[in-house]
Amino acid sequence: MPKKAIQTAGAPKAIGPYSQAVRCGRLVFCxxxxxxxxxxxxxxxxxxxxxxxQAMDNLRAVLAAAxxxxxxxxxxxxxxxxxxxxxxxxxxxxxxxxxxxxxRATVQVAALPKGAAVEIEAVAHLEREP
Length: 130
What we know:
Layout: E1 3-6, E2 21-24, E3 27-33, H1 47-65, E4 73-80, H2 86-96, E5 103-108, E6 118-125
């Protein structure tokens, strides 16, 4: 099954040799998104809540570029540099995820690119073939 790179100007450009997402059949694997503003590539101001919202918005844009939405997401992973931010990020996450919530893991990491406090990645399953 061939894979297809997904790119959109609605999310920050990749900061390394990777795709914003890759679609393979009915699966869409979204790379982790930080709280970067798409146009400038700079971190959004406002702390972990604003970073989580921007990361979720960035993922929404990547999903849309793959003809998917948050309703199609089956698995997410959240990376936090401080697990004490869990409740704040969880509240933001709940604003985006409706219906059957995706399976999820949340882990604390020593550091994230660009000094981010949060990074979120997602896997979506589409009902339709490409």
